Amino acid sequence: MNYKIGTKDKPLLLKTPPLSSEFTMHTDTKDGMEILVCTVGKTVLHYNLQIIDDLHTMLKAHGDWMELGSADEQKPAKEGTVEAWGRSESNPVGGWYGLKKGLRGRVGMYIPPLMEALGLAEVTHDAKGNKMKAK
Questions:
Q1: Residue 77, φ and ψ in degrees, nearest 5
Q2: What is the rounded CA–CA span in Å between residue 32 and residue 14?
Q3: Domain span at residue 61?
Q4: How far apart are the first and last CA of the chain?
Q5: Does 51 reside within a domain?
Q6: Number of independent structural domains in the chain
Q7: What is the rounded CA–CA span in Å between residue 127 and residue 48?
Q8: How confident is the model at residue 1 (pLDDT cuts 50, 70, 90)?
Q9: 102 conformational bin, left if phi > 0, alpha if psi -120 to 50, beta if neither
Q10: What is the pLDDT of residue 71?
Q11: Would residue 5 count as lying in a domain?
């Protein structure tokens, strides 16, 4: 798990799957744990860094395109999507990869572009209904 994701001073600039908005991603340490820090405008989300390897492993096992299904934490995630997996009690962390209460969702919006930039996945870039698969 040694990815070039950027630092607070030099974050990685990414675009959402529909290519409609920019956001940044970098790694940091919080409470002794290495995390992903995703900044969207003034909103800052935190994700467990383990999601990169875990999602890549799950997508490889899935073997085909998977719908992203991005949703806020307060909204239910559509079954069978990356978003639903990112919250599922059956994933490797036993629940949410999002670490900030109230802002734990949107795995399907912000993690796929990072994985695409890292060369781990392919992501579609349609206006709606985007999908991803492992490389």
A1: -90, 140
A2: 26
A3: 12-134
A4: 16
A5: yes
A6: 1
A7: 27
A8: low
A9: left
A10: 94
A11: no
CA distance linking residue 3 with residue 131, whole number of Å: 22
Quick check: is 44 in a domain? Answer: yes
In degrees and rounded to multiples of 5, residue 58 shows phi and psi of -65, -45
What residue type is 51 in one-letter code?
Answer: I
Cα(76)–Cα(56) distance, integer angstroms: 23
What's the CA gap between 134 and 65, in Å, rounded? 8
Torsion of CA 98, 104, 107, 108, to 10 degrees: 160
3 pLDDT band, cuts 50/70/90, is confident
Tokens found for residue 81: 């999507």
Distance, CA of 95 to CA of 44 (rounded, Å): 20
SS3 26: strand
Task: Read off the pLDDT of residues 60-92 as tens digits, 9 standing for 90 and up.
Answer: 999 999 999 999 999 999 999 999 999 999 999
Q: Can you tell me the distance from the alpha carbon of 8 to that of 117, in angstroms, rounded to the nearest whole number?
A: 18
Confirm whether 7 is domain-assigned. no
What's the distance, CA 42 to chain centroid? Answer: 18
Residue 1 CA to residue 51 CA, distance in Å, equals: 10
